[in-house]
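Bumping with the actual sequence this time:
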Amino acid sequence: MNPSSKLRPDTSRRDFLFAVGGAAALPLLNAYAALPGAESNPQRPKNVIFILSDDHRYDFMGFMGTPEFLQTPNMDRMAREGLHLQNAFVSTSLCSPSRASILTGQYAHKHGVVDNNSRVPAGTTFFPQLLQKKGYETAFMGKWHMGHNSDEPRPGFDKWISFTGQGVYFDPELNIDGQKVFAQGYISDILTDHALQWLQKDRDKPFFLYLSHKAVHAMFKPAPRHLGKYENDPLKYPASMADTPENYKDKPDWVKQQRNSWHGVDYMYHGDMDYDTFYRRYCETLLGIDDSIGRILDYLDQHQLSESTLVMYMGDNGFCFGEHGLIDKRHMYEESMRVPLLACAPGMIKPGSTIKQMIQNIDIAPTILDLAGITTPENMDGLSFLPLLQGREVPWRDAVFYEYYWERNFPQTPTVHGIRTDRYKYIHYHGIWDIDELYDLQNDPQEMHNLINNPEYKNLIESLNQRMFDWLEKTGGMLIPLRRDTGFRAIKRKTGK
C-alpha cells in the first residue's frame, strides 16, 4: 500500500508519519527529519532567490503550450535546467491571503489575512525572520500588499524596497529602506535592477532574496519593447466560455450571474477593454517577468553563484480567461487555484525533472527553512518539499484544501471551502442558497460537468465533505470573518450535497 494513501494533509509532520504505522514509524520519522540536514548533503545550496509574480496562471508558459504563441524562454530554461512542479496550488486565490501564506506557512484562517483589506495581526512571524536568526542576509523587493497601503519596511528583511498597494507599471515611487525615492522606467525592470545591485554586494553570509513583482496584475501594461508583440496572433477561446445552456447546466447560480459583472467576460473590469486585447496585453506583460528571471539566472552563472543558489519562481494565484464565463481569480476552479512553480539548483536538482505531488503556497516557508537547516515551526501548516527537490521519495499528502472568504467590495464570489485530490474536486459554498460542485478531473479536466447531484457519487461526496470539515476543525478554521475587524461567526458542519 502506498503510505500516502492513508495520510491526511491536515496532520502535523509527526502525525503525518505516525499514520503510516504507529510506533514503527519512529525510524522513518527520524530519517525524514535528517534527510535535508545541512551536514547530510554537501551539494545543497546555501542561498535562495524566491521570485513571485502576480496573477500568473499555471499553464501560461512557453513549454506548456498555452497559448501556443506565448514565448517564455527563461521560464522554459528553469524547467529545462531545473524542474517543474506540475501540481502547485494556492490555499486562497487572492493576493494578500496567498502572500501571507507564503511568508507564514499558514492557511489564511490561521494567519488572519483573509482578504486584501485585513491587517497582518500583531506578532506575526515571517519566515525570513528565522533566516536572519540563522545568519542569513535578507532582502525584499517589490509588491507587499498585505493589510494596508503602507510601504513601510516589515520585519525579517535587512534590505527593503517596496511601494504602496498595487503600485504602478511606470515611474513608481519606491520606499527604499524607509526613504521615498522616485524611479523612472518599467517596474519589472526597476525591481530587477535593484535585485542585481543587491546581489553584487560583498558578503560573508548566505543570502535570501524575495523578488516580488507587480506584474502581471490588471490592468496589464507591458514594457514598451513587448507592446504589440502578439497583436496578430489568433486566440483560442475556452470551451466553457460560451454562453450556452449546456455550459451552465448544474452550475451554481452565482457563476452564471457573475458573467455580466466586473469579474465576468461580458462586462469585465467595467468594460474598459475587449477580451482579445485584454488577453494579449496579459501575455505581453508576462514577458517582462520572463526577462527578469533570465537576468537573475545569467548573473548567477556569470558570478559562479548558480551552484550555491536555489532559485524558485511562483505565481501568487492563478487567473481565468473566460473559463466558465469568468475573469480574474478567487474561486476554486483550476485556472484560479493552480500556479506555476519552477525551481533550479545545479548539483541538487536533476535537470529536466518534474514533481507530480501536490504542492501548496504554505509549503514555501518550510522548504526554504529546511534548506537553511531550520526545523519547521509547529504553528506552520505547510510541509517541506526539499526532499522532493532532491529526488527523494518521502510520504506526501494526497489532497490539498482551499478557502476563500466573501469580500464586501467584491461581492460577486461567495465564501468557498473545498478539497482537491489527484482526481476529484469538491467545492462547498457557505452562506448562499446554491448547489455545491464535484468534478472528476481525470475525465473532465475543464470542470464542465458538475456531479454533485449524481447519486453514484453520494458516498464520495460525503467522504470529501467530512475531510474538508475535519481539516477546518483541526486547523481552527470553523470561524467565518464577518467583515474587517468586526469579529467572526462560527460555522456548522454540513453534509455534502
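The C-alpha cells above came from a reply further down the thread. The CA atoms of residues 2 and 148 lie 45 Å apart.
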